[in-house]
Design a protein that fits this description.
The protein has helices spanning 38-41, 76-86, 104-114, 139-145, 160-171, 195-200, 208-224, 236-247, 284-296, 311-314, 331-340, 347-361; strands spanning 2-12, 17-26, 29-33, 45-48, 53-56, 58-63, 88-93, 120-123, 125-126, 150-151, 177-179, 191-192, 204-205, 228-230, 252-256, 301-302, 376-387, 406-416, 419-422, 425-428. By secondary structure, it is α/β, with parallel strands linked by helices. Strands 1, 2, 3, 4, 5, 17, 18, 19 and 20 form a 9-stranded mixed sheet that branches. A hairpin with a 4-residue loop joins β1 and β2.
Amino acid sequence: MQIVLKNVLLINPDQKLNSKSSLLIEDGIIKKIGELKDKEIENCEVIDCEGKIAAPGLFDMHVHLREPGREDEETIETGSNAAAAGGFTGIACMPNTSPDIDSAETVRFIIEKSRNHLVDVYPVGAATLGRKGEALAPINELVESGIVAVSDDGVAIKNASILRSVLEYCRMFDLPVIEHCEDPSLANGAMNEGLNSTLLGLRGIPSIAEDLIVMRDIMMAEFTGSRVHIAHISSAKSVQLVREAKKKGIKVTAEVAPHHFTFTDDQIKSYDTNYKMNPPLRTKADLDEILKGLKDGSIDCIASDHAPHSIEEKEMEFIYAPNGILGLETQLGIALSELVHKKVLSLEELIEKLSINPRKILNLPVPKFEVGEVANLTIIDPDFVWTVDHSQFKSKSKNSPYDKRLLTGKSVAVINGNKIFRNGKFSNI
C-alpha cells in the first residue's frame, strides 16, 4: 500500500532539516521526498498536511505500563495505544512491575507482548534485584535480552557502594543509569515542603531531598566515568547542579515531566489527588529554573512519567493516595502550549527534547527523512485547539489533572513502518 503526505513541513534537527515537501511511503518505507507527479500518486492514499509538521516519531523514555502485575491499571497494549494517541512511536517502560523487570524472562515477556504494535516498547531493567538496592540485578543477561537502561525506579539506588558497582558495570555496556533522585529519610511527605504545606497541614518533602541525591549521583558519575540520567527533575538547585556538571564534561543527562513546568504546589490547595506526584509539584522559582534549563540544554528531554492508577486509589485522602498521573496523551499538547506557544522553545528545540535526545540517551537510532529509511514519524498540528477529555483516553486509567484543560497543538497521526494511527484507529499501510 502507498500513502502520500502532501505539503508537509519536515522538521528533523538531527538532519538540520526544516523544509516543506511531500513524502511517498510504500509498504512502510520512504520511497520519495519532494515534488510528486500526478502519475506517482494516482493509486495512493493522499493526506493533505498543509499547516502540519512531520517530525521523527516522538519517544517517551519514562513510562509505567504496569504489566505484569497491575493489569487493572494499564497493560502493555493499552499503554501503547495511549502512546500512539499522544503522538509517540516509541516508549521505554520502567521496571516497577510485579515481578520487577530484573530477569531476562520478564524482559522477553514485555518485548514479545509488544512485538506487533505500532509503538516500539523498550524495557528498562532493574539496577538491583527486586529494586531493593542490596544486590545487583543480572545486568548482562538483561542487556542481552533487550533492555536500554537500568533503574531502581521509584527509589534512588540505596547506597553509594551499590551505586558505584551499578555504574561501573553499566559502563561496560555504555548503559545509562536512570535515577529517581530522592533521599528517603527526607522524603516521607505528601507534597513540597514550604508555605503551602504548612497552610494545608500536610507533611512536606523538601527540595534538598532531591538535591542531595542529584549531587551524589553526579559525583559518582564523575568518579566512575559512567552515565547517569536524572529522572523527572523538579528543583531549581538540581537543575543548577546538572548545568554545572555538564560544563565539567561529566556524563549526566536529565529529563523533566510536563507537570513540573506547568504546575506549582499552589494546585494542592484543592486537595485534588491528581496533583499528587513524586517528586512533588514545587514552587514558581523551581518552575522558572526548569524553563531556563530546558532553554539552555541543561535538561535534555521531556518525559511523561506516565503513571496510571485506579479511580479507587486516587479517591483516597490526599496523604494516602498514590503518587503519579497519566501523561502520554497530553504531553505533546502541554509542551506545545506551555513551551512553544509561550516562546520558551522553538519547534526544533521541542522535537529534540521529545524525539531525538531520548533516543540518543538510550543508544537508539534516530528516525530520518531519507529515501530507503523506515517511515517513523509523527504528524503534528501545532495550532489545533482541543479540550482534554479523560473519558476518551486510550489509557486504562483516568488520573489526569489536565481533564477539561484547553490546549493548543496535537498529534494528528503517527506512522511506524507499515502501521498508521489516525482518526483514533490503527491500520496498515
